[in-house]
Amino acid sequence: MRIRKLELLAATASGNFGTTLEFQEGLNIISAKNTSGKSTCIMSILYALGLEGMLGSSQQVPLPDAMCRSIMEGEKEFPVVESRVRLEIENRKQEIITVQRLVTGKNLDRQLVRCSMGPALSDSTSQYPFRDFYVRTQFAAQDESGFHRFLAEYLGYDLPNVPAFDNTSVPLYLECLMPYFFVDQLTGWRDIKSRMPTYLRVPEMAKRSAEYVLDLGILKRAIEKQQYELEQEKAKQTWSQAAVRAMDRMGEEQVLIRGLPVEPTAIWPPLPPPEVLITDGENWTPLATAINNLQVRIDQLVEEEIPKAEEVSQQVIEQLRAAEEKLVTFADRLHDSTKDLMAERAHLESVHKRLRALLEDYRQYQDYKRIEDRGGQIALETASGICPYCHQSIKDTLLDQNVAANPMSLEDNMAFIRDQIATFRDMWESAKEVVSAKEKQAAAITRRIEELNENIRALRGTLKSDGRIPSIAAVQEHLHVENRMRRLLAIQEAALEILKGFGELSKDWAKIQGKLKDLAIVGLTEKDEVKIRHLEESFVEQLRQYGFHSFPVDQVRISRESYRPSRGEYDIGLTSASDTIRIIWAYLLGMLELAHALPTNHLGLVVFDEPRQHGADRISFDALLHRAAASKNFNQQVIFATSEDQETLERIIADIDCMYRHFEDRILTRLP
Amino acid sequence: MSTATLDDVLNVPFTFQRRPSAIPCVMRPAWRLHILSLILDQCRGGRASLEQLHVLNWAIRTDESRQLFLQFIKGSRAPNQIIVRYDPSLSRAIDFAFAEKLVSRHEKQATLLEDIQDKSEEKKKAPPYRVILSERGKALVLQIHEMEYAFVVEKEFLRAIGKKVTQDQVQSLFTWSPLS
Predict the structure, then answer these.
(1) Which residues of A are less than 8 Å from B27 in CB distance?
(2) What's the first-to-final CA gap in chain A, in angstroms?
(3) Of A212, A30, A158, which Cα lies nearest the Cα of A591?
């Protein structure tokens, strides 16, 4: 981004005041005395872009009275009726826009930014289309009508969502990046750490912003990792839902899939492979076996002809007796099975009850722990194990002190409950399985009984019927067996579908796991390392040039963890005020210089409002300005506002190619 | 397996070490004092009779009891469907609370039976035995409310009851007589 023009305008009852500043590529110096409004100009740049949120969460205007309340001319004071700022900027694609924002007015008025799609300051005659946007409201960064969303796009930024707590993500706001491009007079020179707008609650904000500005691969990987972790969660859910559906579907047919993993697995089929079992009320047999046996019987029946009733009447009588006996047996079995089932259900319920009680007890202990950890003003003697009456030590229980055993400590008791919960959870899970299997057993027995009843009816029918017609029983058996075969084959197909589905899910899971393993060690890539090293070299070189003296410069590094200046292993710590200035200047300029050598997301622009300096340890900006001037060669821009003594300043910049504008008196002057 | 071998096994010196026991959190005095303070804070004027405390102490204990009690005060459950369990440890908890100066109490000690028998005349008068939340107790309650994540379920339960629990309701729970 390049700043082209800045216009400040304050309208009073007796005329307009203001100024217009033009900026060029390379170094731009605004020179004026301290109270003349130079900081106003610098802050107006930030304000026009709606980025004052970089400084804090306050909705107050970061501009002084001259723009907001009243403006001085000589000795006279004029109340400001309305004031605004306008900023004309250009992006990499050489598209020029002009941003306008009110300074006076209510919050709502000031949250509006009018953006003209053209150089409205340079060319005041043409009419350019414009759009209104919002700033400093809740969703301004992401909403269509938010200025920062537009601005990000305009600057060619694809701002990511960075991982936040609890697997959520939060947008990386423009305000988080601005500290690398803008240093305000009041707070910007304190130290290199505390300049981030932490109220925006982006975790590891400084790190993420640096990663984005320098376009480090590590950020992309961190984001990718989080996305895959989300996918992993989803895959787990999909899997367990599929498992539940499969169980239900098969359960309807008295079929069980044994060995179906409830948690996702990358290997399919798992060992041992899932087995499809079916029950007839007595035994569980593999479905394949049941089908085979049935096929054998079908083949048998096909061999034999359907006999006539009179041929088989003796047989039928025997079959009838056998069936009726079997019916009695199965009725008994059903009765036992039902009793059994009820007992198992009762057991399940009691285990569940115990589990609930344990969970409640654990929750209460968690509350107790919170009280203990917090301490607090109301100290209870009881809580320290001392009797509040006789001040002797007591056991931590309300039970009779003589009878009760020594209670466990808080932590031990909680660990104990956790063990119990784990145990009872296991018991509950297996009890559930037992109940489920027994339910299927009972259902199968019921079904057998129905079949037997049908059979008996058919046999009786055969006996009563005309001897010459085919045996009803035999016909019925044919039909029955064919139906059963159809049903079993359908089940088998369904089961295969289900298992194939799991095969697919397993493949997806394996892929996610593979990716996560790749991303497990999220560290700097090789290209990242090159960039950091470049920055480090530039930074150290500058510190030497500028006369850094708090400690030997060769101890200075750029941390690979925080990307901030460090001394050996540690953060650079406290240095003299002048050295802090050197550090901040060298760091930001180092990033600017890196930006023209290697691909980054840097704006190509840095704005400095000179720090207030006191006493003997004043820093001369000579070397710093000389270095900054080099930005001109790379189409970059450095803006520097200073109140340095005019003669000294003009001597320093005598041999520097820069834009220099000096204000003898107030910057905001009456306009014609 | 011959008995000789078993004897050999048993004939060695044994030592027993008494390990600490796990106890339910409700038996921890400090926890109880916090709950007691919360309950008292919820009663009218920060004071409650022994009956009220027994009822609320029982009610706040488990999911079932909380549910049952809420249904009762809403009127959807008759008093004789509910069995309020006396808790002997409550008296000790109140004693501790008094010693910690979290509560103060009226001097006259009455039994619960007296309360019920005097019901007709004394109905309008306040019950003789009262437990009253002190300033220190109120400060403790404030502290508890400041902690957003502590006692969430209990706070929610007490909020749902509101100040609605009257002496009549409490009595009807104890005597299983319907509310008039």
Answers:
(1) 397-399, 407
(2) 32
(3) A212
- Determine the Cα–Cα distance for residues A385 and A375; give it in Å rounded to an integer: 15
Token match 């950890």: residue?
A: A373
Q: Omega into A197 within 30° of 0, i.e. cis?
A: no
| Tokens matching residue A481 | 């067996």
Asked if A405 reaches chain B (Cβ–Cβ under 8 Å), the answer is yes
CB A89 within 8 A of CB A120: no
A380 DSSP assignment:
-
pLDDT band at A477 (very low <50, low <70, confident <90, very high): confident
Query: CA-CA distance, A558 to A192, in Å (whole number)?
Result: 12
Give the mean model confidence (pLDDT) for residues A83-109: 90
Band (pLDDT 50/70/90 cuts) for residue A338 is very high
* Number of CB atoms found within 10 A of residue A486's CB: 10
Using CB atoms, pick whichever of A372, A397, A412 lies closest to residue B27.
Answer: A397
Give the mutation candidate from A356, A367, A372 for the B interface (greatest B CB count, under 10 A): A367
Interface test with B, best of A365, A382, A396 (most B CBs within 10 A): A382
Please answer yes or no on whether B99 and A364 come within 8 Å at the CB atom: no
- What pLDDT is attached to residue B4? 67
Instruction: Report CB contact under 8 Å: B23, A378.
Output: no
Q: How many CB atoms lie within 10 A of CB A246?
A: 20
Q: Which two tokens stand for residue A555?
A: 């101890």
pLDDT in tens, A235-293: 999 998 888 888 888 877 788 888 888 888 888 888 888 889 888 777 888 999 999 99
8 Å CB contact of B23 and A380: no
| B148 inside 8 A of chain A by CB | no
Using a CB–CB cutoff of 8 Å, tell me whether A58 touches chain B.
Answer: no
B62, B93, B150 member nearest A367 (Cβ): B150
Describe the crossing of helices B29-42 and B88-99 by its angle, rounded to 10 degrees.
90
State the average pLDDT for chain A.
Answer: 87
Question: Could you give the ipTM of this predicted complex?
Answer: 0.82
d(CA A632, CA A604): 11
Of B143, B147, B150, the CB nearest to A377: B143
Nearest CB partner across the interface for B151, out of A357, A367, A388 = A367
- Amino acid at site A504: E
Q: Which two tokens stand for residue A163?
A: 């991982």
Q: Rounded to an integer, what distance in angstroms lies between the CA atom of residue A141 and that of residue A37?
A: 30
Q: Which residues of A touch B63 (CB under 8 A)?
A: 356, 360
User: pLDDT tens digits for A363-413?
Assistant: 999 999 888 887 766 777 777 778 888 888 888 888 878 777 788 888 999
Mark yes or no for CB contact A417/B28 under 8 Å. Answer: no
pTM, two decimals, is 0.59
Asked if B23's CB is within 8 angstroms of A407's CB, the reply is yes
**CA–CA separation, A85 and A68 (whole Å):** 11
Q: Is the dihedral of CA A179, A184, A187, A190 positive or negative?
A: positive
Sign for the pseudo-dihedral over CA of A352, A358, A359, A364: positive
> What span, in angstroms and rounded, lies between the C-alpha atoms of A27 and A44?
19
Q: Do A361 and B62 touch (CB under 8 A)?
A: no
Peptide bond before residue A272 is cis, with ω within 30 degrees of 0:
yes
Cα–Cα distance list, B65 to A84, A252, A591, B135 (Å): 65, 37, 65, 30
Q: Is B94 in CB contact (< 8 Å) with chain A?
A: no
**Residue A60: pLDDT above 60?**
yes
User: Chain B closest CA to A338's CA: distance in Å?
Assistant: 29
Strand partners, A115: A99, A131
Residue length, chain B?
A: 180
